[in-house]
């Protein structure tokens, strides 16, 4: 009789342990997903600025490709770099767009362009 009670208690503890393990792994997966979404959103706003300013500078061109190259931190500002591929009539070319913004206020300080190649 005591052997059966011991087995029942052990099964309960194993079930409780399994529940905690599953709950913990779910929370970890949620945390990783939230961090990934935050990372994407950190430059998304400046990507829209880069595309809008590019369309203003090249009104007859269409943006056919968009790439976030990276972020460079300075003392009080940061620069998000984007590489855009444009098509104007039968000509395709690429432009690097540098969006510099204030780290604290998140406001754009300046946008500069550099034609690739």
From TrEMBL:
Signal peptide: 1-36
Keyword terms: Signal
Pfam family, one: DUF3889
Domain of life: Bacteria
InterPro entries: DUF3889
Protein known as: DUF3889 domain-containing protein
Taxonomic source organism: Metabacillus idriensis
């Amino acid at each position: 009789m005591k052997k059966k009670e011991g087995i029942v208690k052990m099964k309960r503890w194993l079930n409780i342990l399994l529940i905690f393990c599953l709950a913990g792994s779910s929370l970890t997966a949620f945390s990783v997903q939230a961090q990934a979404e935050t990372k994407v959103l950190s430059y998304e706003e400046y990507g829209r600025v880069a595309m809008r300013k590019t369309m203003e500078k090249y009104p007859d061109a269409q943006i056919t490709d968009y790439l976030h190259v990276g972020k460079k931190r300075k003392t009080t500002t940061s620069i998000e770099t984007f590489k855009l591929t444009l098509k104007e009539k039968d000509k395709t070319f690429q432009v690097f767009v540098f969006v510099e913004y204030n780290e604290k206020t998140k406001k754009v300080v300046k946008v500069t362009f550099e034609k690739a190649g």
